[in-house]
Design goal:
- By secondary structure, the chain is α+β, with helices and mostly antiparallel strands.
- It is built from one helix and three strands.
- It has a three-stranded antiparallel beta sheet with strand order 1-2-3, with no helix packed on it.
- A hairpin with a 2-residue loop joins β1 (about 5-15) and β2.
- Residues about 45-55 have low confidence and may be disordered.
Length: about 90
């Protein structure tokens, strides 16, 4: 990134089933800090996904994936299923 000129740039990733394009803008460095601005992202494949950056809390959390499934519920269901299978195996012997 340090060697790119100021202005708009595009990066393209090519996959077996399509491609994904992302554009970004390099702005002039001011007061000792570099500044990058996300411009656009798109995909030409039906399986291409895009996600936004950090959650806005100082970068301490990972990117938002859109997955809001209740993990604790699925873990409880898996534990109950494993216990049920264990009981069936124990009773058959």
């Amino acid at each position: 990134m340090e060697t790119l000129s100021v202005g708009e740039h595009t990066i393209t990733a090519v996959f077996d089933d399509g491609r994904a394009d992302a554009g970004f803008t390099i702005v002039k460095k001011t007061s000792g800090s570099s500044s990058l601005t996300k411009k656009r992202s798109s995909g030409s494949s039906s399986g291409t996904r895009s996600s936004s950056g950090s959650s806005g809390s100082g970068g301490k959390k990972g990117p938002m994936t859109g997955d809001t499934a209740p993990v604790a519920m699925w873990a409880a269901i898996a534990a109950a299923a494993a216990a049920g299978i264990g009981i069936l195996v124990f009773l058959r012997r």
